[in-house]
Amino acid sequence: MNAELVNVVAGGNLGVTVDLHKLSSQISQYSVNYEPEVSPGLHFELPQSGVTVMIFASGKYHLTGGEGIDQIHEAYDEVIDIIGEYVNENINKEDPDIRNLVYRGDFEREFDLSELATSLEDADYDPKKQPGLRCRLNNQSGLITIFRTGRFTIVGVKNKKEGNRLLHELEAKITELVSN
């Protein structure tokens, strides 16, 4: 089995209110998307990292699309530099909270998902609704989706330790089921 971290979602609060109309015109070089009648947040992509930023008037923000936790921290520093030029108050410089890690991997073998669903606890498989089998192992926080091709995704873990533990448990459980 191989697996890699492919997306990190984080967020926090800058501790200041932000005039999104004004900010959208001041940082227009970042391809800003701000349509308050559609969404209350201002969106833009950071040029160096490709991380997408969403900022709300309350000062709360989300960072998505990081390929690693270090990249999210670098993106946050970049956001502080960009926003700091246009906000006249002291910005809260606390590290962002990691809210979701997304892993993608491959068992490098195909599965009969109907059979696998009967062997895994808390498994949900309805091919009419979704092509993958969804499950949680031992009520852990991560949601695993396994596809017939052997590819899988894990969403909902908040740190690498939790993600690695879930990956190892998944690999052990699948190995046990396949060898029986």
From TrEMBL:
Pfam families: TBP (PF00352)
Alphabetized InterPro entries for the sequence: TBP, TBP_dom_sf
Record-level Gene Ontology MF annotations: DNA binding
Alphabetically ordered keywords of this record: DNA-binding, Repeat, Transcription
Gene3D superfamilies with a match to the protein in the record: TATA-Binding Protein (3.30.310.10)
Record PANTHER family: TATA-BOX BINDING PROTEIN
Assigned protein family: Belongs to the TBP family.
Entry protein name: Uncharacterized protein
Organism whose genome encodes this protein: Halorubrum tibetense
